Amino acid sequence: MRNLMIALAVAAAQSAAADGCPVTPDHTTALDGLYAEVQRAPNEMIARNFSSQMWELWLEAPDEPSQMMLDEALRAMRVSDYLRAEDRLNTLVSYCPFYPEGYNQRAFVNYLRGDYAAALPDLDQAIALNPRHTGALTGKALTLIALGREDEAQPVLKDAVALNPWLGERVLITEPEGEPL
C-alpha cells in the first residue's frame, strides 16, 4: 500500500513539475530514521530534537520560488497577518499542488483564524500527500475537536501518536468512554 502511495505521489509530482514546480524533495529515508529515533527517545526533550528535524524536512520546499512563498507566509503568520499568509499559501498551492506543507500551513492559517471548516480540506490534502505528517495529523485532530467532532478526532490523534509517542497532543487521547488516559 505504501509503495502504491509513493508511486501515485511521484506521478502526481511529475505532473506538477510540468507546470513549473519541480518534484518535492524525497526525504523518505531521513524521515524513516527520524520516526525510528523519536519512537526510541527516552524522554520528551530528546524527542523534540527529532521532531524539529522532521519539521526542517517538511518545510523544505521544492525550489527557490516555492521556498520564498512559504517563507513569506511563515513570516506573515508570525505577525498575525493572516491575509498575507493565506495569499502566499494560495499562490504556493497553485504553483506546487503536490507539496504537502503548502496545504498544511494554509490549514494552520485557517485554524488560527478560527475557520476550522476551511482548515479540514487542506489537512486532508496534506495527509493524502504525506500520510505520516504528524503536524498535519495533529492539526486535523485539533481541528475536529474544535468543531466538536471528538469521536472523529481520536483515531487521527492515535495515528499521530503512534508515529511520535512524545507529541504534546497525546494528552488529548481518551479511553473509549471519553475519559482522558
TrEMBL record:
Coiled coil: none annotated. Residues 1-18 form the signal peptide. The lineage of its organism: Bacteria, Pseudomonadati, Pseudomonadota, Alphaproteobacteria, Rhodobacterales. Pfam families: TPR_19. Keywords: Signal, TPR repeat. TPR repeats lie at residues 100-133. This is Tetratricopeptide repeat protein. Transmembrane segments: none annotated. It comes from the Bacteria.
